[in-house]
Write a structure and sequence with these properties.
The complex is a heterodimer. Chain A is of the alpha+beta class. Chain A contains two helices and eleven strands, in the order αβββαββββββββ. Helix content of chain A is about 15%, strand content about 45%. In chain B, helix 15 links the parallel strand 8 and strand 9.
């Protein structure tokens, strides 16, 4: 099986060529297509803690007396948070409908929402509604926005309680 | 003949044969996959350091600074360094995967070798993570794709209080994360990787970390040629108002992310966890019993340490003498590390068939294998020698992992089976020649590819007088034939065996010097 140096060098060159061809073939391809032509993306993403599931209760003197001295807080507020309900409408048609229970052992954590919806390119009217309070019927926040979306364009819908509602980027 | 070779091993053996044909056993890449991976790591490190000198790690300037490096540096050195950085990293993944395939196909991952396999799996993941953070740093569309995909995966785990993916939406991106990435990619992950590699080879001796010069130069030339022919390119800079549509993915590192288009993050984590767990526990599916570990006979051990040096698996060490003998040290076997290869028996200077038997009636040596003692295989040699008839009597010593020497059996050819040819004291060849054999054949694994790492190599050196305990110079080396071959090499081995047999005939007709130096070699 001993080959002359020339043949051996040739075989080595062939092997190294195949090695490099393998690298070349997979280091930048095959291409992954994330989004079909003619589509844009609406991303609804925010973090928010729902309102307590019931109102705070002022403890009576008897109730306070029944507690250990270090536990005698005048207000008794529930830990559990409300379920978050979100609805996203495009041109009058619901394209996203989420009901997210609060995470955590005591259901007292904020929820994280991150949803992508692929939509056709063009001008659309978006309406997003959210209910974050179990004590309120209907929606506690509603905002609308009209966007002219180009191919692969991203419309990012965020929620910021401090500014009182949804923002559209 | 041994049972047929399983298809996976057969594929490996043919690949190995092809590389032996192309590179020779000295440069066969399959025999140097670890050192080659180190070599690619060095290329990535040096090119990475060059890039880092000029690279701006901030979100705003990262892409532009890389473009400046690639396009404006003199003689295209920036582009070359960037491409070498990428392609050497990709090459490392190929050599790692081949390394895994080799150890698996050759059944070199179970038994005492579980440790190297077990520590190798997380090391592979660390290499992949290092690649992922590297792509992340560029802040091009690919980086955004990697960011979003990785964030979706991480968000599915209960480790972050807030969604990580939201950090990569318009208005949320900050340099704090890019600084963290730079730290991880440039310092944290490489340091951790080196630490893991140290663990990976902890139970091996004589670890080779430098690839043969010729092979390394060949790979460097090939990588440079590829870098010039097809320079690595960035995607367009990050534009947070657009979704990257076409991603030119590096499949060596980023292959998990496209699955997000079809599976949920939870399902992908299940796949990753399942594959990882399965691979981690492969050495016990089923467990391999190595055999009874070596035992030390202190009364025959002077603590020279040759077996400590020769053991491929770090299973023997020296300690202070405990029996009051005049020697300073004694050897101790760590049974949990012992692969029961018997190389230590072959390396012990006391392992010689010419020794007189002690009062108990059996030949003893300093370190021996309970399941196949020196005395046993010396007796087997005696029996074989007693049965040989005809001209050109040959004793063939063979290992249990190479070609089955039973195929050489004939009236004038007797066989002695060992665990590994490294188990054979070189003096046993002399003993056979002195006691009626015209020739000795030692047939082990393919040269350079011993199942027990160094068995056939140590034996080869001993026969050539280059390693202790060496074969005495006066022994006629022309009467010794060293063969190396796997189960599929029968045709070649029989041809070589016949040539050796014929050479003995010629030798009988025209006797040569009894001190001939050249050993017959395949």
């Amino acid at each position: 099986m001993t080959k002359t140096p020339a043949i051996r060098y040739l075989l080595q060159a062939v092997n190294l060529f195949l090695f490099m061809a393998l690298i070349a073939a997979f280091s930048a391809g095959p291409t992954v297509k994330q989004l079909d032509d003619g589509l844009a993306v609406v991303t609804l993403a925010f973090g928010h803690a729902g309102q307590p599931v019931s109102a705070c209760h002022v403890r009576t003197p008897d109730e306070l007396a029944a507690l250990a001295p270090n536990m005698r807080a005048p207000m008794d507020c529930p830990r559990e948070r409300s379920i978050i309900k979100v609805e996203l409408e495009m041109d009058g048609k619901v394209i996203l409908d989420l009901t997210i229970p609060p995470p955590g052992a005591f259901k007292d954590q904020g929820v994280d929402v991150y949803q992508n919806v692929e939509v056709p390119v063009g001008r659309h009217e978006f309406t997003v509604r959210m209910n974050d309070n179990a004590l309120v019927d209907g929606y506690t926040y509603t905002d609308s926005y009209t966007a002219d979306l180009g191919p692969a364009q991203l419309l990012f819908i965020d929620f910021n309680q401090r500014i009182g509602g949804f923002t559209f980027n | 003949m041994k049972s047929s070779v399983n298809p996976i091993k057969r594929v490996y053996l043919h690949l190995e044969e092809w590389f032996n044909l192309s590179f020779g056993k000295e440069w066969n890449p399959l025999y140097h996959l670890g050192p080659l991976t180190f070599f690619f790591f060095w290329i990535a490190l040096i090119s990475g350091l060059y890039l880092y000198i000029f690279f701006n790690t901030t979100v705003e300037h990262a892409h532009a600074s890389l473009e400046t490096i690639v396009n404006d540096h003199v003689l295209g050195i920036g582009s070359l360094m960037r491409s070498l950085h990428r392609y050497a990293s990709d090459a490392a993944i190929i050599t790692i995967l081949l390394h895994i395939f080799r150890e698996f196909s050759q059944d070199r991952y179970r038994g005492t070798r579980w440790y190297s396999w077990f520590t190798g799996i997380p090391t592979l993941w660390m290499v992949v993570l290092l690649g992922i953070t590297g792509y992340w740093m560029v802040w091009d569309e690919l980086a955004l794709y990697v960011s979003m995909s990785a964030s979706h995966l991480l968000d599915a785990l209960p480790i972050f209080s807030d969604s990580m993916a939201r950090n990569f939406l318009p208005g949320n991106l900050s340099d704090r994360f890019s600084t963290l990435l730079a730290f991880l990619h440039l310092l944290g992950q490489p340091m951790f990787l080196i630490f893991m590699l140290w663990f990976h080879v902890k139970r091996l001796t004589h670890v080779e970390v430098s690839a043969p010069k010729g092979l390394a130069i060949g790979c460097l030339i090939a990588l440079t040629a590829l870098s010039i022919y097809m320079p690595a390119q960035s995607h367009a800079p990050v534009n947070l108002s657009k979704v990257p549509t076409e991603i030119h993915l590096d499949w060596f590192y980023l292959n998990i992310f496209p699955l997000l288009q079809y599976w949920s993050p939870g399902e992908i984590w299940l796949l990753v966890a399942g594959v990882t767990t399965f691979m981690l526990f492969m050495p016990w599916l089923p467990k391999k019993n190595e055999g009874t570990p070596a035992v030390v006979n202190l009364e025959h051990c002077n603590g020279c340490g040759q077996c400590v040096f020769d053991c491929p698996f770090d299973a023997i060490s020296l300690q202070a003498r405990t029996d009051g003998a005049k020697w300073k040290s004694e050897v101790i076997v760590h049974p949990e590390l012992c692969a029961a290869c018997g190389i230590c028996t072959g390396s012990c200077p006391s392992s010689t068939p010419f020794r007189k038997k002690k009062e108990e009636g059996s030949l003893k040596t300093g370190i021996d294998m309970p399941e196949l003692t020196l005395d046993t295989f010396k007796q087997q040699t005696d029996e074989v020698l007693g049965k040989l008839t005809g001209d050109n009597k040959i004793v063939a010593f063979g290992c249990k992992h190479g070609y089955d020497i039973e195929a050489f059996s004939a009236a004038n050819v007797g066989t002695v089976h060992l665990f590994c040819t490294g188990m054979m004291p070189a003096s046993l060849a002399e003993y056979a020649l002195k006691n009626g054999a015209d020739g000795v054949v030692i047939s082990g694994c393919r040269s350079g590819d011993c199942y027990y790492r160094f068995g056939n190599h140590w034996m080869d050196l001993r026969i050539h007088g280059e390693r202790q305990p060496a074969l005495r110079p006066r022994v006629d080396r022309e009467r010794i034939k060293i063969l190396g071959g796997a189960e599929v090499d029968g045709k070649r081995l029989h041809k070589q065996f016949k040539l050796f047999h014929d050479s003995l005939t010629q030798k009988t007709a025209t006797p040569s010097s009894a001190t001939a130096k050249e050993v017959n070699h395949d």
